[in-house]
Amino acid sequence: MTAPAPTTLRARLDATPWASPLGTQEYFVNMGPQHPSTHGVLRLVLKLDGETVREVVPVLGYIHRGIEKICEHSNYRQLVHLTDRMDYLSALANNWAVTRVVEKAAGLETNGRIEAIRTLVTELQRIHSHQLWWGVFGMDLGAFTPFFYGFRDREILTDVFERTIGGRLTLNYIQPGGVMHDIHPEFVRDVKAFMAVFRPRLDEYEALLSENVIVQERLRGVGVLSAADAVALGATGPVLRASGVAHDLRKAEPYGLYGQVQFDVPIGSRGDCWDRYAVRMCEMRQSLRIVDQLIDHIPEGKHFLVKPAAKIKVQPGVWYSHLETARGVLGAMLVSTGGEAPYRVHLRTPNFNNLWTVTAMAPGGRVGDLVAILSSLDLVVPDIDR
Amino acid sequence: MGLVTDHLPGALLPLPGGGALLTAIDQVVNWSRANSLWPLTFGTSCCAIEVMMATGAARHDLARFGAEVARPSPRQADLLIIAGTIVKKMAPRLRTLWEQMAEPRYVIATGSCAISGGPFLYHSYTTIRGADEVIPVDVYVPGCPPRPEALLYGLLTLQKMIREGSTLARPGQVRRPVLAALPDGMTLDDVRAEIAALVQETATVDRKAAAAVGAAFAAQDRV
Amino acid sequence: MAADLLPLAGLALSPDALVAAVQLLCPAAQARPDCDRPAVKVTVGDWPELAGRLRAHADLLFDLLETHTAIDWPESGRIELVYLLTSLRRGHHLTVFVDIPRDDPVAPSVCAVWPVAQWQEREVYDLFGVRYADHPDLRRLFLDDDWQGFPLRKDYADAFMLDRPS
Q1: Among A87, A148, A157, A355, which residue's CB has the most CB atoms within a 10 Å radius?
Q2: Do C161 and B125 touch (CB under 8 A)?
Q3: What's residue C134's pLDDT?
C-alpha cells in the first residue's frame, strides 16, 4: 500500500527529502527566560530537528515568589493584595476568588450592590485583559499596529478603573465583606461612553487582524488541541472552550450576578490557534453584553458590610472556592485551624495548568508556530510561578 | 567611539584650552547619549505591563524622549529597566544580561519589588530584596506598579544625570543613585506641564534664526 | 470529536450521594464533614485504584484534576495530600484527602489517570518533599536543583528569610 499523495504545500515540503547525505542531528535551544514572546520569564527548552519542534520542556521558577508561604503569615485581609500580583491582568477576579473563600469560611454577608459592582468591574477587566492580549498577539505575529490599537482602547478603561478604584493595574478593590470604595458618581456614564467607543472598534479589530489572510494562515490548523487532551492536561478558560468544551464557571456555577444576565459561552470546534483567537474575540462581545445589562441596574445600598478594621476569624476546616478569570478557573483553598491567620492557602491558578497543553500542541510544528501557540494561550508567568 | 572616548581626553587635556574643548565634546556626547537610550525589553511581572507596554504605547509614548527602540537583545541595548520582582533563580540571569550590555549602560529599577522586594519582602524564601543587590542601579522609580508618568519622570532624571554627570575624562565613574519620586507639593499636573513644555521646547523651530543661518550659508557659497 | 465532553446538565450527584457512591467503590473511605464541599479521606493503599475508578465510573466521571496540593501537619507527623476533582460532564466536585507519614513521604503517582498530575506532583515534591512512586520525571519544578529543604513545610527555615517586625 502506498502513502497518499501530499496535498498541501507544507505537506509536500515536509515529504521532500532535504536531508544531506551527511545526515541530520537533533539539537536543543533555550527559549527564555529572557525572550520577547514568552511574555515574561518563562523558559522553554526546545528539542529541534531543523526548524521542526520535537519536544518542549517548560522550566519554571524564574518568578516564584513563594506567595503561598507569605499567605500563611498574613491575616485574612492581607491575602487579597498578594493575589493582585499573580495574574495582574485579572487582578479583580483574583481578589474576588480569595474574597469569596474568606467570606464563605467566615460567614460574611454581601448585598446586591456589592455583588453588582463586583460583577461589573470584573467583567470590564475581562475586556481590559483581552484588549491587551489582542495587541500583544498581533505583535507576536509580527504586526505592531494591534499593540497600539489595543492599548489605545485599554487606556479608556484604565481611566474608568482609576476614577473609582484609584489604581490602574493592581487594584486590590474587592475585599471580604464589600468593595474598597463606592463607585465614582461618573462611573455609569464613563462605562457607557467606553462601550459606545469600543463596540465599533471591536469591528475595526476584526477588520484589521481577524480578516487578515496572513494571520488566518498562521493560525488555522496550527497548535491543534483535542478536547480530550485539553481536559487531561488541566486546561480551563478560553483554551478549553476553544477545544469544544462548553465549561465556564459563570454558567456552570453562577456567582455574583451572572445567574441573572443573558450571555453565551463561545466555543471552538477544532481547538487550533484560530479557535482560541476567535473565542476571545467573541468573549469581548459577550462581556459587553453582560455590562450592558447590569450598568443601569446597580441597586442602592452600602458598599461595605464589614468594617475594614474588623478582624476576621475563621472556624477550623477546609474551604475551596473557584471562579472564572479571563484565563480560566482560579481556585483558592483555605485551611484553617481557627484564629485570624490561615494555616495553609493554596491557589489553583489557570495559567499553571494551561501551560502544559503546549507540550502536546507544539511537537511537529515549527518554531514560528510555537510563538503563535504561546501567544494563543495568553500566559501570565507570575500566575504560573506564584 | 573608541578612538574619541579612549584617547581624546589624554591628548586634549595637556594642551592649553584643552579642558574647555573637552567640556564642549562632553556636552555633545552626553546630549546624544541621553536622547537615544535603547531600552532592553526586560519585564518579570506586573511592572512590565505599566512600565514597558503602557509607557511605550500610543498614549504615553516613550518615543517623545528618544527611548522607544526597545531591543530584545542586551547586546543592542544600553538601558535596563528592571520591571518586576527578581527572585533567586533569576538573579544570575539578570547579572548576565547586564554584563552583556555595552558600556555606557544605565539601569532604572521600577517598582517596589525591584527597589526592596516590595510586598514579597517578608517570609519569602526566594525574593531578592532589591535589584541593587545584583547589579548597580542608577535611578529608582517607586510605585507598585509605577504609573507611566512616573517612569517618564525617572527617564528624564536619568537623562539629566547623563547630560550633567558624566565626562569622557573619567569614563565609567559611578554616579550617585537618584530617587525619582515626585518632590513634595508637586502634582501630576505639574509633571504633565513640565513634559509638555519640554516637548514644546525641543519641537519648536525658530524660523528667524533658521533663516539667518541659511542666509549665512548662502553668503558663504557666493564668496 | 468533542460531543462526548459536552456537559450533561442536571446529572450532578448531591454531596451525600457522591460520598455514598465513593464509599461503594472504596468501603474504607471516610466522609470529611469539616470541608465545605463533598470530601472523603482514603488510605494511601486504596488511592491508586480508587483514582482510576473515580475517573472511569459512569456516575462519577471525574475527568479534570483541578488541583493537587498538600498540607503539612508536623504535630501529628503527617502530610495530607489533597486532590480536588471536578467532573466537567456531570458538574460535581469531590475532594480526596490521603495521609502519608511525614518522615518518609512516599505516595503513588496518579499521572496515568490525570496527565496534568505530572506537573502538579512535581510542584508538591518541590515544596513539600513528597516522593511519588512511578512518576516519570520527578524533579524540582520552581526551585533550583541544589535547593536544600522543602519551603512549604511548617518547620522550614533558612538564613535568608525575614520575619515581619511586629
Answers
A1: A87
A2: yes
A3: 86
Q: Residues spanned by CATH 3.40.50.12280 within chain B?
A: 37-165
Instruction: Please tell me which of the candidates C143, C144, C164 has its beta carbon nearest to residue B122.
Output: C164
Dihedrals φ, ψ of A305, to 5°? -100, -15
Is the pLDDT score of C138 beyond 50? yes
Residue labelled with grid coordinates 548597580: B136
Check if the beta carbon of residue C147 is closer than 8 Å to that of residue C165.
no
**Residue type for C106, please?**
V
Contact (CB<8Å) B45/A152: no
| B-chain residues near C156 (CB < 8 A) | 125
Contacts with A, C 112-151, CB within 8 Å = 114-116, 118-120, 123, 127, 140-144, 151
Contact criterion met (CB < 8 Å) for A335 and C71: yes
Q: Is A244 exposed, middle or buried (0-12, 13-18, 19+ CB in 10 A)?
A: buried
B83: helix, strand or coil: strand
Q: Are A99 and A83 in contact (CB under 8 A)?
A: no
Domains and CATH numbers, chain A: 9-59 (no CATH), 67-385 (1.10.645.10)
The whole-angstrom separation of Cα A342 and Cα C26 is 32
Which residue of A42, A43, A62, A137 to mutate against B (max B Cβ within 10 Å)? A62
Is the Cβ pair A228, C5 closer than 8 Å? yes
- Distance between A369 CA and the closest CA of chain B, angstroms: 19
For residue range B146-156, what is the model confidence (pLDDT) as tens digits?
888 888 888 88
Tell me whether strands C78-86 and B39-40 are parallel, antiparallel or unpaired: unpaired
Q: How many CA atoms lie within 13 A of B96 on its CB side?
A: 8
**Which chains have 3 or more CB–CB distances shorter than 8 Å to chain B?**
A, C
Per-residue pLDDT of chain A (386 residues), as tens digits, is 445 554 565 565 566 565 555 566 777 888 878 777 777 788 888 888 888 888 888 888 899 988 999 998 888 888 888 888 888 888 999 999 999 999 988 888 888 889 999 999 999 999 999 999 999 898 888 888 888 899 889 999 999 998 888 888 888 889 888 888 888 888 999 999 999 999 999 999 988 888 888 888 888 888 888 888 899 898 999 999 999 888 888 888 888 889 899 998 898 888 889 999 999 999 999 999 999 999 988 888 888 888 777 788 888 889 999 999 999 999 999 999 888 889 999 999 999 999 999 998 888 888 888 989 998 988 888 899 88
**Residue A107 Cα, gap to closest chain C Cα (Å):** 12
CATH of domain B37-165: 3.40.50.12280
Provide, as residue numbers in chain A, all residues whose Cβ is less than 8 Å from the Cβ of C5. 227-228, 231, 244-245
Residue C112 exposed, middle or buried by CB count within 10 Å (0-12, 13-18, 19+):
middle
Contact B125 C162 (CB under 8 A): no
The letter for the amino acid at A23 is G
Q: In this structure, are residues C127 and C150 in contact, taking their beta carbons and an 8 Å threshold?
A: yes
**Residue A155 in grid coordinates:** 487606556
CA distance A69 to chain B (A): 7
Q: Search chain B and give the residue with CA nearest A151.
A: B57
Sequential DSSP letters for chain C: --GGGS--TT-PPPHHHHHHHHHHH-TT-EE-TTBSS-EEEE-TTTHHHHHHHHHH-TTT---EEEEEEEEEETTTTEEEEEEEEE-TTT--EEEEEEEEESSS-EEE--TTT-TTHHHHHHHHHHHH-PEEET-TT---SSS-TT--S-TTSTT---SS--PPP-
CB A39 within 8 A of CB B46: no
Question: Which residue in A372, A49, A349 sits closest to A224, CA to CA?
Answer: A372
Could you list the beta-strand ranges (E) of A303-378: 317-324, 329-336, 344-348
Does C164 touch chain A if contact means CB atoms closer than 8 Å? Answer: yes
The C-alpha atoms of residue B88 and residue C124 are separated, in whole angstroms, by 20
